[in-house]
Write a structure and sequence with these properties.
By secondary structure, this protein is mainly α. It has three domains: about 190 residues, Up-down Bundle (Growth Hormone, Chain: A), CATH 1.20.1250.20; about 55 residues; about 200 residues, MFS general substrate transporter like domains (Growth Hormone, Chain: A, Up-down Bundle), CATH 1.20.1250.20. It is globular and about 60 Å long.
């Protein structure tokens, strides 16, 4: 009798699991309307990603044309990066106050104005100012994309929708240098900005036509104190981290003081929100949700590993392996292909393995794909290196999307805009810490090694990335479907 009851209970449990799996599959199916929203958002997200990579190719030409040293023209990229990071906290308030569609179009329009002005800049100083305008637009686009997407498809479909958004992040870094090179060859650096104009107009027209006007906006009071604390705090922190390479070489830098000041301002904002702010610039209530905390930690750590690798890999191919730019670009493109291809199977794999199970498998793949870079004979095995970057890209591609999508799982719908801003800030910080720390480790290895200094630095850098990848397992094990 007891055995029969136990068998029936097991059958019921399996039936419940099967029905839950079927329901999850049905919920994860994106409708035609959802896919149209994704297409509209892809156009907007593609713009800043393409622009950033194309402009980096043209910095030397800008320096020559505007008759300023390269150290001055570097602020064309730095000012853009800092302004984009600084306005991310404003996106949460703007989405609540204006609605997602209006804020998205405003971001595109700001990027359009900045691009148009930059194309006609008459001096390096003017170009830097106009790049700041561009950066403000770009800073709104990324978090607002997440807000509009999650509100449109629903939090239960966030995993499938965000995985579909992988195309711009993979294609833009590949096309950016090509677009920049063609623009320089046939017309000059100004054409890089002129090319943004029709793309911006296309994005605005598509958004006006296909994005629905949400009614999720209220008269939210602007948090001026939070703005003065958090926006410069984030910008200064990222700037301080970006100067870590100079400090690692033993050069004193004002950057470390500015970075510390940024951290103090950011910490003060957290204290201000907890003690005094009834309606802060970014509501931090979602950090009280266990699933969001786990996702936040995983997003920060996985971003550190991903962007740290983006710095280490090209240097390894160029310096340690002696590859040319074409071979290096091809190998890096393979990592992007691995990222994009793996995300196509994210939903079915998560249904089979579970979210935490898939995250752990992805971590194992990223570590496995990094191991070959610990050997100095890597240049002799091009096929192995190609397979490694493909596997590494696949693992990190799934891991970062899992971290981002599960962040919305248990968050109250009213906090979606705040969660989007917070996850974008964590991604930016992870990227800054990743590039700065990998550069510092590389330089430490090169400076302290007596023999084969370059390879020692790369062994330490990739070993460090493997340790951080392993640390990702702690928050990954707590993820829920």
């Amino acid at each position: 009798m007891r055995a029969t009851s136990h068998a029936e209970t097991s059958q019921d449990r399996r039936a419940d699991q099967k029905s839950a799996s079927i329901k999850q599959a049905e919920d994860s199916a994106l409708s035609k309307e959802h896919r149209l929203v994704i297409l509209v958002l892809m156009v907007g997200v593609f713009l800043p990603l393409l622009d950033a990579t194309a402009v980096n190719i043209a910095l030397s030409a800008m320096s020559t044309n505007l008759a300023v040293p390269l150290s001055t023209i570097q602020w064309v990229s730095t000012a853009y990066m800092l302004s984009a990071a600084a306005v991310v906290p404003l996106s949460a308030w703007a989405a609540k106050r204006l609605g997602g569609k209006r804020t998205w179009i405003a971001g595109l329009f700001t990027f359009l104005i900045g691009s148009t002005l930059a194309a006609f800049a008459w001096s390096a100083e003017a170009l830097v100012v106009f790049r700041i305008v561009q950066g403000i637009g770009a800073g709104f686009l990324m978090p607002i994309m997440q807000t509009v997407l999650v509100r449109s498809v629903g939090q239960h479909n966030a995993k499938a929708a965000l995985a579909s958004m992988a195309v711009p992040s993979v294609i833009a870094p590949i096309l950016g240098p090509l677009v920049g090179g063609l623009a320089l060859h046939y017309g000059g650096w100004r054409y890089i900005f002129l090319l943004n104009i029709p793309l911006c107009l296309l994005g605005i027209c598509m958004a006006l036509r296909h994005l629905r006007t949400d009614n999720e906006f209220t008269k939210v009071r602007f948090d001026a104190i939070g703005f003065l604390l958090l926006c410069p705090g984030i910008a200064l922190t990222i700037y301080g981290l970006s100067t870590l390479g100079e400090i690692a070489r033993g050069v004193s830098s004002m950057g470390v003081m500015l970075g510390v000041a940024g951290m103090v301002l950011s910490a003060t904002f957290v204290l201000y929100v907890k003690k005094w702010a009834p309606r802060p610039l970014i509501d931090l209530k979602m950090f009280s949700v266990p699933s969001f905390r786990s996702s936040a930690w995983l997003l920060f750590l996985s971003s550190l590993v991903f962007y740290g690798g983006l710095l280490a890999l090209p240097l390894y191919f160029l310096q340690s392996c002696g590859f040319g730019t074409i071979e290096t670009s091809a190998l890096l493109a393979l990592q992007g292909i691995g990222t994009m291809a793996s995300r196509r199977y994210l939903v079915p794999l998560s249904q089979r393995l579970g979210t935490s199970g898939l995250a752990l498998v992805s971590i194992a793949a990223s570590i496995l794909g990094t191991i070959p870079f610990l050997w100095p004979s890597g240049a002799e095995h091009v096929g192995m290196l190609a397979a490694s970057v493909l596997v590494r890209g696949a693992g990190l591609g799934i891991l970062t999307i899992l971290a981002l999508s599960t962040a919305y799982r248990d968050v109250d719908h009213s906090l979606v805009a705040d969660a989007s801003a917070a996850t974008r800030i964590l991604t930016n910080l992870g990227a800054a810490v990743g590039t700065a720390s990998v550069l510092a480790v590389l330089q430490y290895g090169i400076r302290t090694a007596a023999v084969s200094s370059d390879q020692t630095g790369f062994i330490l850098a990739f070993g460090y990335l493997m340790v951080i990848s392993l640390a990702c397992a702690l928050p990954a094990a707590k993820l829920k479907a």
